[in-house]
Amino acid sequence: MKKFLTVVLIMALSFTILSLADDSDAADAGLKLYEVKSAGSDEGFSLYNYSDSDIDLTDYSVRNNPDVGADKGTITFTKSLVLEPNHFITIVKSKDDPESKFLQHNTYHVYGTDGIVANSFTMSDKGDDIYLVKGNKIIDAFCYGNVTISDISLWEGEPYPTMSSKKSNDFAVRVDAAKSSTYGWQRWGITSNYFDPDFKIDAEVTPFTFPESGGIPVYKTIETAKKTVYINMYELTSANMYGLLIELENKGVEVTVLLEKNPVGYSGMKEDAKKMKALVDAGGEIRFIGGDMSRYNYDHAKYCIVDDSKVIVTSENWTKNNLNGIVVDDPEEGKGNRGWGVVVESKQYADFMLTVFTNDFDKTYGDVIDFAEYFPTVTPASLSYTAPTDVYPTVTYSAPITPIMSPESSWDGTLYTIDQAKGRVYAENQSVSSAYEDFTTVESPLKHLVDSSSKGVDVKFILNSTNDQQSVLELIERLNTTTAVSAADMTKPYLHNKGIISDDTCIVTSVNWTPTSLQKNREMCVIIYSVEVTEFYADAFITDFDNNYDFDGVQISISELKSTYTEGDQITATAETFPEKDYEYHWELDGVKMTYDIKRIAFTAEKGDHTLKVSVTVDDKVYGTAQKFTVNAKSGGFDFDEYKQYIIPIAIFIIAIIALALSIAMKGGNKHNGGGRRR
Questions:
Q1: Virtual CA dihedral for 210, 214, 217, 218, nearest 10 degrees?
Q2: pLDDT at site 641
Q3: What is the CA radius of gyration of the chain?
Q4: Phi/psi at 212 (5° precision)
Q5: In this predicted model, which residue has the larger pLDDT, 648 or 471?
Q6: What is the mean pLDDT of the chain?
Q7: Quick check: 462 and 476 in contact, CB under 8 A?
Q8: What is the DSSP-derived secondary structure letter of residue 182?
């Protein structure tokens, strides 16, 4: 018995020590997956040595099969390949693509050479999971597309987005060695500016609107340039702005411009190229970004950096009408679009933005070309600058700001800002993608507007039906009739704005509510935390809303209903309608009709997730809304599922303690028996 207990004790302690050792090995592993390219003949991956010592790859394998004992889906290193500290090595399927940036940026080895054995190792365009294995232990992982990894010690959260098979230079790069999640990786050539709500920059902020301003704040800010002007613009077509930039070049100011190569529906590029040529001849530098290999679907940003101290961000392109220099009081009388703009004065912000601009302007990534390459034979226009004579009054406020942008952070920053609202959310947007029109289930800014309205937040939304009238008007009707969102259609002035107001915070942005704009374009936005600045834009918004909101149906929402309850709780809910009249209310719980036809109801529900719906019928039209809630189990019981992961380690620990105690007790007993007196 004594021997058995000793063996049990040793086994238990060994198990604990081995577990700790394994965790330590995983935490200290110096080799990690660094790049992944899933499409093209140059499909492959890179490994990076983050340690201070050489690493021989013969100890490692790479697999797209989580079963480390499987033969298929593996790459093994049968010969010594030593990777020095702070270096990486690239392993690819083929070297046949002469344009491959994946092959050009580092030393690479091809499957089947240098002792690299690939056994059915391929990566799917739609999604896959990849594992770095040392011996028989997974030490790093990566997943993308439609494949997830459930082990949060290897990967946390959503998979990395699908890499495009159409863009030969689309591959993922690790930007944070400590993070095994989407936020630790980024598309090659894109900055790693993820959204951080705590990252705020103190600034002086001057808001303005289009068409009221005629773009005068843009002119006045750029006129002050003494050293440099950097512009990133989807469409820069204003002859007067080119005239100003040429004038600045002639005064010794360096003007650098990055433009989208192929704007959608833009037919005047050849004519506008003459204006660009005039700036280039004056000493300015112009490049275009775009094409099949582009890092972005479109460079849709609209911003400018002046003298490393001021940044202009607008929702509007710098066109003739938007920069017409004419001040108007009534927006419907203006020539330009409805849009928002802001001048932010802050060296820190300007430095931040210059880093982004420099990255996007770089030709290294294969998607940027010089003006002379794109327009080798164009003749210059004759241009001059006429300073606006109208006066547009502005007020400058001190306010913290947070930069966000697509594709890195506008999705998270937009949803976060909407979700923080307690009192109001106002938004107007040129377009909402059909992919987001199902606002009951599809995650999107529109769904978050609807969710906020169901919590009692005053939500107003303005859309533009000019380009897709029937679809937009149907969406507006559904919002007005099935949710607590008040929605309006605006066509004059042309609604091109994308602005958001959330309580005392606002966003000036170029982002349309489409998957492309939020997650695939280069877009620029700035979150401004200021009562005064937000009220400035809110006044313009309310003017637009009052001029265009004409819904005469019924809005309905549910109040009182909480998000969670405990089994046995009485649940109460009240139907709120606008306009408030005497209706017969139809309640449903999880799709089953309830025996209530009154405004306020009380009931109990079983444990689980539920959906409560209420509707009214007026003139044969049904207006309704639904809200979800959860009923939890009563506390005090023992939930085995919650604690089962701890049962085995606890049992082993208890056995070890008992074994140790018995061992000590037996030794004590032997001593006592041996020390007795003889009779």
A1: 90
A2: 52
A3: 32
A4: -55, -40
A5: 471
A6: 89
A7: no
A8: G
Instruction: Determine the Cα–Cα distance for residues 312 and 220; give it in Å rounded to an integer.
Output: 11
In 175-262, the DSSP E strands lie at 185-187, 201-210, 228-233, 254-260
CA angle 524, 210, 358 (to 5 degrees): 25
* H-only helix segments in 432-487: 445-454, 469-482
Residues 576, 484: Cα–Cα separation, whole Å: 9
> DSSP 3-state assignment of 481?
helix
Alpha-carbon dihedral angle through residues 278, 257, 247, 249, given to the nearest 10 degrees: -100
Instruction: For residue 94, give the DSSP letter.
Output: -
Nearest 5°: phi and psi at 341? -145, 160
106-120 pLDDT, tens digit per residue, is 688 999 999 999 999
Q: Which residues of 462-485 are buried (b: 16+ CB within 10 A; e: fewer)?
A: bbbbbeeeeebeebbebbbbbbbb
Residue with tokens 């927006």: 331
Peptide bond into 85 cis (omega under 30): no
* Beta strands, E only, 38-167: 44-49, 55-56, 60-63, 74-77, 82-83, 88-92, 108-110, 116-119, 127-134, 137-145
- Confirm whether pTM is higher than 0.90: no
Distance CA 467, CA 496 (A): 11
3-state secondary structure of 60: strand
Structural tokens at position 327: 């001040």
Contacts of residue 121, defined as CB under 8 A and 6 or more positions apart, other chains included, come to 62, 63, 64, 73, 74, 75, 111
599-606 contacts, C-beta under 8 A, 24 or more apart: 599/574, 599/575, 600/560, 600/572, 600/573, 600/574, 600/575, 601/572, 601/573, 601/574, 602/570, 602/571, 602/572, 603/570, 603/571, 604/568, 604/569, 604/570, 604/571, 605/565, 605/571, 605/631, 606/567, 606/631
- List, in sequence order, every residue forming a beta bridge with 35; answer none if it has no partner: 46, 173
Q: Is the dihedral of CA 205, 206, 207, 209 positive or negative?
A: negative
Are 507 and 499 a contacting pair, CB within 8 Å? yes
Beta-carbon contacts of 428 under 8 Å, excluding residues fewer than 6 positions away, are: 338, 461, 462, 463, 490, 495, 497, 498, 499, 541, 544
Q: In the predicted model, is pLDDT for residue 610 greater than 60?
A: yes
Residue 674: its pLDDT value, please? Answer: 43
Cα distance between residue 485 and residue 451, in whole Å: 9
Query: Hunting for tokens 């109040």 — which residue is that?
Result: 559
Which amino acid, residue 328? V
Name every residue whose Cβ is closer than 8 Å to that of residue 462 and which is 6 or more positions away in sequence: 427, 428, 429, 487, 488, 489, 490, 495, 541, 544, 545, 548
Whether the per-residue pLDDT at 662 is higher than 90: the answer is: no
d(CA 652, CA 168): 53
**How many residues would you count in the chain?**
679
Cβ atoms of 190 and 161 closer than 8 Å: no
- The number of helices, as runs of H, and strands, as runs of E, in the chain is 13, 36
Indicate whether 33 pLDDT > 90.
yes
Tokens 């140790």, residue? 660
CA distances from 360 to 288, 453, 524 (A): 10, 38, 12
Cα–Cα distance between 304 and 233 in angstroms, integer? 8
Strand pairing of 254-260 and 228-233? parallel
